[in-house]
Amino acid sequence: DAGVIQSPRHEVTEMGQEVTLRCKPISGHNSLFWYRQTMMRGLELLIYFNNNVPIDDSGMPEDRFSAKMPNASFSTLKIQPSEPRDSAVYFCASRKNTDTQYFGPGTRLTVL
Amino acid sequence: DAKTTQPTSMDCAEGRAANLPCNHSTISGNEYVYWYRQIHSQGPQYIIHGLKNNETNEMASLIITEDRKSSTLILPHATLRDTAVYYCIVRVVEAAGNKLTFGGGTRVLVKP
Asked: How confident is the model over B48-62, as a mean pLDDT?
């Protein structure tokens, strides 16, 4: 299996621009998680989906962040407008039922 | 989920066993102990998990005390590639909504 796929791997944008991060979970997995990692705050869960339905978005920082999962094989995390404090590494992870989570390689976002 | 306490960092000699402690004194009866690690610039990687019995797989062994208030992850023969941040996580396994809450972890440096 290819594992969790994330794109892009690196993104540099200017403040105020819209940023879209993409994730393809492992085939057959029915839960998907978005995490953000910074030096200051460590690894934080932003939102997770179960069977394409958002279950808990309490970790989403503010209304500028939104996530969708239109089908079982694709999810997006969008930031609009982006700010310098959004600079971080964003990880996507997927899981089948209650099994362990498998993480993608991450997207390193830099907002100038 | 129960809070965990881990040492901030530790060194280990290459080829020797690395013993990583974790305290989880408030663990509940239905909470599992999970270990993940994160190698620099990569996504977290699952290592092992257990409920109350000791567990072993190809990567490591997990020793859980009888009262379940602490555990030790053992890397039997540490290599330089085992240099990473190791996270001990305690969580309930349920059908949906079992999210991982990452603490600060232990930064392990394997030295030649």
From this structure: 94
Joined together, the tokens standing for residue B10 give 């530790």
Please state the φ and ψ torsions of residue B82, each to the nearest 5 degrees: -85, -5
Which has the higher per-residue pLDDT, B104 or A23?
A: A23
Residue A38 CA, distance from chain mean position: 14
Question: What is the side-by-side order of every strand in the sheet holding B106-111?
Answer: B9-13, B106-111, B84-92, B31-38, B45-50
Assign B93 to helix, strand or coil: coil
Chain B CB contacts of A106 below 8 Å: 41-43
Pairing relation of β-strands A107-111 and A102-103?
A: unpaired
The average pLDDT across B80-93 equals 91
Q: What's the gap in Å between the CA of B53 and the closest CA on chain A?
A: 18
* Nearest Cα to Cα of residue B35 among B83, B80, B90: B90
